[in-house]
Amino acid sequence: MKRFGWLALFSLIMLMVGCAQATPTAVPTVPPTVAPTATAVPPTPVPTPTATPVPAPTATPRPVPTATPTPVPTATPAPAATQLPRCVSGATPPHVFTGKATLAGAAAPDGATVTALVANAKCSSAPAVVSGGRYTILVEQPEGETYAGKAIKFTIGNQLPSNAAETGAWEAGGATILNLTAP
């Protein structure tokens, strides 16, 4: 305790010496408040209305009517009638036969002829010519004859015509697909 006693004693002395020399503080005085002084503020400018320029209206062009052309009708050409071969008499349309032509078990050669016979008389305006193994022949009814429903026989070949096994029946304006075979 000796060690701390000197320190404590020294601190106490210092404290007392300091208190002895202290002077009491007077009542604090507050400096007077200075009254604010007005400063000159320039006046705020007030806007004065000015007239807004109004643009002159733009002239709207008036549409000018365009003349509408009057369509001129174009004459449509009438389709040309497909003329069928005329009959010998010109009064009764022929019967058309078409099909394959077979001679001796093979397609008839190009250029071979096919002939139509009614009552063993030729009744076509011209013999048909075979092309690609096919034929087409017109069987016409001569003036003064009546072929309606009669049987038509056919021959195939040029030199020695051979009778085809098939026959047809004549009909005015008829068309028949008939494949012909001859030995």
Percent strand: 25-35%
Total beta strands? 10
What count of helical segments does DSSP give? 1
User: What is the first-to-last residue Cα distance?
Assistant: 162 Å
Secondary-structure class:
alpha+beta
The amount of helix comes to 10-25%
Overall description:
By secondary structure, this protein is α+β, with helices and mostly antiparallel strands. It has a domain of about 90 residues: Carboxypeptidase-like, regulatory domain (Immunoglobulin-like). Helix content is about 10%, strand content about 25%. The protein is built from one helix and ten strands, in the order αββββββββββ. Strand 1 and strand 2 form a beta hairpin. The longest helix is centred in the first third of the chain and has 20 residues. The protein is elongated, with a radius of gyration of 68 Å. The relative contact order is 0.15. About 5% of the residues have low confidence.
Question: Layout of helices and strands, plus pairs?
Answer:
Blueprint: H1 2-21, E1 95-103, E2 106-107, E3 113-118, E4 121-122, E5 128-129, E6 134-139, E7 151-156, E8 162-169, E9 175-177, E10 180-182
Short account of what is shown:
With 183 residues, the protein is α+β, with helices and mostly antiparallel strands.
Task: Give a quick set of tags describing it.
single chain; 183 residues; alpha+beta; Immunoglobulin-like; 5-stranded mixed β-sheet; 5-stranded antiparallel β-sheet; 1 helix; 10 strands; elongated
